[in-house]
Automatic annotation (TrEMBL):
Keyword Transmembrane on entry: yes
Protein name, UniProt field: Uncharacterized protein
Keywords: Membrane, Repeat, TPR repeat, Transmembrane, Transmembrane helix
InterPro entries the UniProt entry points to: O-mannosyl-transferase_TMTC (IPR052346)
Organism field: Congregibacter variabilis
Amino acid sequence: MSFRRAMVAIAYSIVCRPMVAELLFVSTVMSKVMRHNSSLNPTLVCMLVSMLGVVLLALLFASGLGSGYILDDSTSVVPVNQLRTRPDLFWQLVFSDTSSPIGRPLTIFSFALEQVVFSAGPEFSKAISIGFHLINATLVAALIHVLLTMRGVRYAYVIAFVTALVWACAPQKVSTVLYISQRMAILSTLFVLMALLSYLLARSASNPSYRLVWSLVCVISVLMAPFAKENGVLAVPLIALLEVFAVPYTRRANGYDKMKVAAVCLMAAGVVFFLIFGLMEYFRSDISYARRNFTYADRLGSSPVILADYFRQFFYPDTLRMGLVHDDYPISSLADGSALAIGATLIWVACLAFMVRAVLVRQVSIVALGIGFFLIGHCIETFYLPLELYFEHRNYLPSVGLAVLFAELMRRVCLRESGELRISALCLAFVYLCSLSLSSYALAAHWRSAEALLLHDVSGHKNSPRVLMDQALADASLGDVAGARELILEAFTQSRSQPAARPMGSADPVLLDVGASCLGGLLAMDELPLAGDLAEDDPIRSYMLRTLRSLVAENACQNFAWHEVSDWLFSFVSVLLDRGYILGLPALVDLYDFEKTLGNPVKAFVYASIARERDHGPLVLLRWAEASLLAGDSESVDVAIVELEAMVDQGKLSGFELVLFKQYKEAIK
């Protein structure tokens, strides 16, 4: 047997990637040692390795501490830092999130608590996220252990520990764990796992008291999960999935189990709702996809390929493509007749057919459970909504289903009568785990600094508009302004041609050029383009105005001619309005914040007034009230106060908005 495996390793080394051959070769050596040393207990060895793995897991992700706040952290995490000096705003901030219809108060609560108690910096926040990830790994191990125990599997705890470590060490988890904002995905998964585990324990408990306790834990977890992130609602269909494919069928006098029937009906209702939701999105896709380079058909048609890539990246990772930037992701759509899309679609259709067959024959199937878990986990963010095509954190919860498939594979191998094969399989799993850990460690090392993370993104995403923009600013800060301007033009071109990218507006390259000139040490801009030449609908779509505001606030470019930039922006907006073009509301808000930071209250008031004509939401009205106060327009201040008080009476202001409103009223007095 050892000779045959060695021959297979040699064959793989010729036709496959070297890692496969290395896994087979090392597992052969390890299994041979364990077979010829009777004092080594495979169970004890795997348990010790698993316990050591928990410690190493923490150290693995800890190697990525150092990059600070990045991207969305500036809007979701940094504002909570004011609790260090204003703890009285705790609950107002917790319930101020508007990123989803119900907010994400549990996630914001965790951010707020660590500020009040520890005055946490970014690296401490990442360490907390690592801790939550370790808890999730433990819950995955417990869930798989219960699933295997219900089927009477020997060495269930060994398989559960190894599988949980494979799940937790997968390089795909690095960006989720080390990106502070994505704690919402980690916490949502925590509560979903708690709900699933407690449901299985309640169903298998013989003691009524235990059943009641676990049922209460399940209900509480189901209710809490959506308040960490909205995909927490998937706990309900996932529980139904467990009931259908994991809980053993029992003989009933009337021939059916009411719990099974209810679960099947719930899953069928979920499928119907999924199709109806897709149809609703189709009818409004002209509006919702207007800011995208891809269409509804592209989004839906490329979903099978994207799902296959999530699957592949979990088991056989390509770390060069991993990170936070995926706006260069290629589209392989059914609408274009892509062979890749057709093949991936056929595979997933076959998987669905397998699940339907298991339901019809009333068969307990862990394979069907794993497939269903993966597909249900992606049903919100991967099919219909006009979101970015690809993000690794979206696979955090669905990958639990892939871990279930891995555990089932190990179970089937360990059922073999041959002890030699069982030992070889455990050794191969251990070596595979080590390979994943090394890949994750190398990937996490790129998170030690923002510069190292940018270099990693540049090496793996050379055509990404976002990477090109960041690289341009980095080159400019090193003095290469001419090279930065070439990258800016390339970023603009790629943003208009890459299907997955958000297209840049006509004014975005100018703003990028301003940032590059500032960081490059220039005191004044070259001749700015004529405002009329750039006039189009929605011409400012990037985050550059916020970057320019930060540069002004930090006095990063001393003696830079910001007044020229301010005057050009004002003339540009005037031309747009005169020609009947529309400037997006986010751009107007950013323009207001930029001029306020620059110390131009009149221009700030103009932008806030334009925004108020476009939108009467609380945040816009609050900015208009502040702008009126700064500009000394008492009449506008009175109007804003009256409108805001009406919103307070109607309960339309969140806690944090209410605090801002009270501060404005005190300032007026």
